Amino acid sequence: MINYSIVNGMTTVFDEIQYCDKCVISNQRPSSVVEFKNKSEDIKPKILFENGVCTACIWAEVKEGINWEDRRSELEKLCDKFRSNNGSYDCIVPGSGGKDSAFASHFLKYELGMNPLTVTWAPHKYTDIGWQNFQSWIQVGGFDNILIHPSGKVHRELARLAFENIGHPFQPFIIGQKLIGPRTSIMYDVPLVFYGENQAEYGNKIEDNNKPTMDLSFFSDAKKEDITIGGIPAKELIKQHNISESDLNMYMPVDYQKLTEISTEVHYLSYYVKWDPQEMFYYAAENTGFRPNNERSQGSYSKYAGIDDVMEWLHFYMIFIKFGIGRATYDASQEIRNGKITRDEGVALVQKYDHEFPTKYLEEFLDYFNLDEKEFWEIIDKFRSPNVWTKENNKWVLKTQVS
Fold it and tell me: Domain span at residue 252?
């Protein structure tokens, strides 16, 4: 078991840093699971290794042995069970209009004959290309969509607190995105919800990939008084941060009794379809007008992944600060597993880009959090783990990097 501690906001991981023999991920990678009942959310690394290989790479090999035609038949039977005969919505597809949700919604509507209602939990701040792809998804793809935008004032405050307290400015968005599908299921009495890939694909417990549905206990186990966002219990947010109980409605657990009353099922499309992000990009580009950015994302070499929300750039940079692995590591590991690049190519890309700060959006970060640049970097630096970083000639240097 990995031991960890948090001192003055700093993440300290005591295990020796280990890199996967097949991809470029390290054993410091945090869990993909959203835990908003625990203020140490996103602190404890949870990726598992077996004989020097991460479980994400092991799963990539297992996927090659799956009969995807049989899984497609399972999906068709599932759709037949819920298919509408009167033109009403028969499934919910949460997404932003990025490559994955564009693929999922188009595949379900035009290849499986479903009538999806797409629903979007708004980004902190759209990028230009993110907004263009969102519009294209609706206009070119031809989908009904509900754009749900939480209070900008509250969302900004929660993101600032999450950045300052747990080094995770993206946490409020992730919570909302996870909840929006089941919440819309209740609102519109549509019991079938499809998310894209199961995050277990990327290194959680490998057996979780064999589960076609999301565990609904995520939406029911927590009580309002137990919720923490940005490392602060909800009751303290209300007392100390000028946030009312009603302001937190969109971040609170979904009513489990209502989910059971309409028999909501939340399915992962990746259980039924072999999930390959680059192939989803090609599909979305051809069928919904999705377009990559006109420049690579700072911190990586990719132009088409995670380009909707300005805050996503800072999110990946904070993962780099806390765990020594950044956006290029995530992108390269995924493409190595899917046979798009070699490990040697991945290592070179990580060494070239992983450390890069997203200067393009610095002024937007400062404005969004109402911080000056000195305050901003002081917050970032307090999350550098001594297990990952050292100072040489007054400059921060990684202790180790993939090679």
Answer: 68-271
